[in-house]
C-alpha cells in the first residue's frame, strides 16, 4: 500500500505543477497580447475592425430617440440576458424608439467566440471590435461605440454610453432630464481632477510615458460609468479620436481629452459643457431601494452602479417599476 500511496502522491504533485505551469504560460501570453495592443496605441482608431457588426439596428427607422451603448465583457453572457429582460428591454419604453447595442472585444477562446456569434444571431445587438477584451483596452471599446454610431446610427437624438454593471432609470430620465438637454451639453458624474494612478498592479494604471511628471489629471472629465450626450456630437467625438494620441483610461480619453480638443474649435458660446449628475447617482443598492420604496415617484436617483461586485440588476429594476402600470403589449406608462 505504501508504494501505491507514494505513486499517487508524486503524480498528484506533478499534476498540480503542470496545471500551474499551463496557467502561468497562458497568463503571461494573455498579458503580453494586452500589452501589445496597448503599445500599438490609437494613432488611428478609425481603423478598428468590426468582427461582428449589426449595422442594421438604426436603419429601419427615420429617427431613433435614444441609442444605448453598453460596454460589456465578452464573457458576461448571463449579465446581458438579464439586462435585456430588465431596464434595457426596448419594448418597456414604447412608443419611444429605444435601441441598444453591446460593445465587446475578443479573447483567444474559440468556444467563447462561437457563443458570442450565436448570441449575436439570436439578439442582433452585439458589436465586436478586433482588439483584446480587457479593462486596459476600454478606450478601444469606447471609440468602437462612437465609430459605430457615427457610421450606422446618425439618426439618433440621444446617445447613452454606459457599462453592464450600471442601471439607469430611463423613465425618470425621459420625464425630467431629456426635455432640458441642449445640443452642446453632456450629462454625467463630473470629476474635476483625480490623482493619476502609477501603481502597475492597479486596473487604473497609467504608464509614466503618459502625462509625464504630473500627479493629477490636468483636465476635468465625466466618469465613464454613464454619460448622456446629444447624438449630433458623436461624429465630433469620433473625428477627434482619429487624430488624438491614445490614452489608457477610457473616460479621461473620451470625455476629457476629446472634449478639450473639440472645444478648441468653438468660441465660448459654442463650447461643450458638462451637467453634473453626481447627486442623482449611487453605488449603494440599499439606499436606492429605500429611496424608491419610501419616496416612490419622488425619488430622484437616476443611476445605480457597482465597481467591486455585480449589481443586483433585477431587484434594482423591480423597485423602479413597482408603481408603474404595464400595458398588454408590455410597455410601461411614462407618467
Automatic annotation (TrEMBL):
GO terms of biological process kind? protein O-linked glycosylation
Family indicated by similarity: Belongs to the glycosyltransferase 31 family.
Could you list the residue ranges forming a coiled coil in this record?
A: none
Q: Which UniProt keywords apply?
A: Glycosyltransferase, Golgi apparatus, Membrane, Signal-anchor, Transferase, Transmembrane, Transmembrane helix
In short, the EC number is 2.4.1.-
Provide any one GO MF term from the record.
hexosyltransferase activity
Nucleotidyltransferase as a keyword of this entry, yes or no, is no
Kindly list the residue ranges recorded as spanning the membrane: 6-26
Per the UniProt entry, what species is this protein from, by scientific name? Mytilus edulis (Blue mussel)
Q: How does it sit in the membrane?
A: Single-pass type II membrane protein
Where found?
A: Golgi apparatus membrane
Name the chain's protein.
Hexosyltransferase
Enzyme class, broadest EC rank: transferase
Q: Name one GO cellular component term.
A: Golgi membrane
Amino acid at each position: 500500500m505504501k508504494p501505491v500511496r507514494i505513486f499517487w502522491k508524486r503524480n498528484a504533485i506533478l499534476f498540480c505543477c503542470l496545471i500551474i505551469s499551463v496557467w502561468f504560460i497562458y497568463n503571461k501570453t494573455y498579458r503580453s497580447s494586452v500589452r501589445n495592443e496597448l503599445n500599438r496605441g490609437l494613432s488611428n482608431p478609425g481603423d478598428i475592425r468590426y468582427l461582428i457588426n449589426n449595422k442594421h439596428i438604426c436603419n429601419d427607422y427615420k429617427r431613433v430617440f435614444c441609442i444605448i451603448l453598453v460596454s460589456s465583457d465578452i464573457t458576461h453572457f448571463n449579465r446581458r440576458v438579464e439586462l435585456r429582460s430588465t431596464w434595457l428591454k426596448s419594448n418597456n419604453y414604447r412608443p419611444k424608439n429605444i435601441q441598444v447595442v453591446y460593445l465587446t472585444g475578443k479573447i483567444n477562446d474559440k468556444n467563447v467566440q462561437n457563443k458570442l456569434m450565436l448570441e449575436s444571431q439570436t439578439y442582433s445587438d452585439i458589436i465586436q471590435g478586433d482588439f483584446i477584451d480587457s479593462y486596459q483596452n476600454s478606450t478601444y471599446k469606447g471609440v468602437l461605440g462612437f465609430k459605430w454610431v457615427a457610421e450606422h446610427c446618425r439618426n439618433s437624438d440621444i446617445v447613452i454610453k454606459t457599462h453592464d454593471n450600471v442601471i439607469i432609470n430611463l423613465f425618470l430620465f425621459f420625464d425630467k432630464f431629456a426635455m432640458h438637454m441642449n445640443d452642446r451639453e453632456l450629462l454625467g458624474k463630473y470629476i474635476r481632477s483625480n490623482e493619476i494612478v502609477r501603481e502597475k498592479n492597479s486596473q487604473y494604471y497609467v504608464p509614466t510615458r503618459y502625462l509625464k511628471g504630473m500627479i493629477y489629471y490636468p483636465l476635468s472629465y465625466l466618469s465613464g460609468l454613464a454619460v448622456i450626450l446629444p447624438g449630433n456630437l458623436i461624429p465630433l467625438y469620433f473625428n477627434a479620436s482619429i487624430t488624438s494620441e491614445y490614452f489608457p483610461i477610457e473616460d479621461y480619453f473620451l470625455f476629457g481629452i476629446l472634449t478639450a480638443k473639440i472645444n478648441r474649435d468653438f468660441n465660448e458660446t459654442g463650447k461643450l459643457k458638462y451637467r453634473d449628475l453626481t447627486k442623482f447617482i449611487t453605488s449603494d443598492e440599499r439606499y436606492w431601494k429605500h429611496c424608491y420604496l419610501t419616496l416612490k415617484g419622488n425619488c430622484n436617483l437616476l443611476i445605480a452602479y457597482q465597481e467591486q461586485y455585480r449589481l443586483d440588476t433585477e431587484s434594482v429594476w423591480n423597485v423602479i417599476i413597482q408603481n408603474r402600470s404595464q400595458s398588454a403589449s408590455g410597455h410601461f406608462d411614462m407618467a
